[in-house]
Every structure is written in C-alpha cells, then in structure tokens.
Prior knowledge:
- This protein has 216 residues and is mostly helical.
- Helices cover 73% and strands 0% of the residues.
- The chain is built from nine helices and no strands.
- It is globular and about 60 Å long.
Amino acid sequence: MLKIEHAQTDPALGRREANKRSKLQRIVDAARQLFRDQGYSSTTTRAIAERAGIGVGTLFVYFPEKLDLLLHVFFTDISSVVDEAFTNLDRKKPALEQLLAVFGRLMDYYGAAPDLSRVFVKELLFLSGSDRHAELTVMTTRFMADLGRIAESASPQSELRLPAEVAGFHLFGQYYYHLTLWLSGAMNRATTDSALRGGLAITLRGLTREGKEPSS
C-alpha cells in the first residue's frame, strides 16, 4: 500500500513532501467522490487523475491499481469513524450498548454508499498482496482489541472467560456477519440492528464465567 516518507529538515525536501501530501489528498478526494457518484466499476483511473489535476502516470506512482485506491479511501474513512466512535463512547453504559454504538456508527458509514460498500467488503474477502493484508491485519487487530476492552472494562477482569483480544474477535464476528447480511439485502437496517443486538447479547453472556452480560 501507499507509503510516504516523513518530511526532512531540508526546506527543499519539506516542500517536496508537502507537494506529495497535497497530491495524495487531491487523489483521495477525487476517488472518493467519483466512486460514490459513478460506482467503482464505472470510475476510471483517468477520470480520477483528471479530477485530481494530475497525470495518470503520477496516479500510478501513488496507487499502482485502482483497488489500492479503493482500499485506501475506505481504510482512511473507517479509521476516522472508529476513532470518533470510541472517543464519544459513554463508558458508563453496559457493554452491549457501547458495542452497538460503535457498530452503529460503522453501519451508518457503510449505509451512506451501500453499493460501494458492497464492493469494498467483497474485495476484503479475497484480498491479495502482502501490503494490503498487512494494513488490514493491523486495523482489524486493533479494532478487535478495542472491542475486547469494552467487555473487559464493563466487568471485572476475572469474569471474562477469554483474554480481551480474543473476546474482541468473537464480538467482531457478530458484527461482520450481520454487516454482510445487511449489505447483501437479506435484511433491512432495523432488522439487522435487532438481530445484531441479540447476537451480541448471547456472545457477551458466553464470554463471561457466570454467563452474565458485562454491565456497568
């Protein structure tokens, strides 16, 4: 995936770095808008380059394939959504309500462009390339650890049957399963939210030693 070096103390290198970052932002903004307006398949790299005000060759320097650009857009957006969701969590609420708040923000994001979101989720299932896998692994591992800490902090550590990061894996599985059902059209959002609530409640009970949902 894309890698840009940190700016150096040399003014010329600093300007070069600033120029790189400016081009990157224009590329990402152009791709995000075109993907949403025209769809992933109908959006060409030439159209993205033209919207960003650069040559196609320059675009390929930043993103060798259109898929790399789609992943970058989603990874960037999702990281911001997740950070905001965890920052605004009411930690006094039960674990179930905290988890639903986080997952709800993500589903709101996906729901803003469902057709594009379906392409993204589908591509994740068969993702190739070590750099792509590495970035996805880092993001997902961090997310699952944060989910596990919700269950951990909402109850004494001794009540959890599994380490927090493993608990987070099971909680993430519930979310991802219901997300794919919803994006596939198998359920509407209201039904999905209700089913996710029930699935998470069952999972939380199973993760605690006494079979009780972690709560504040």
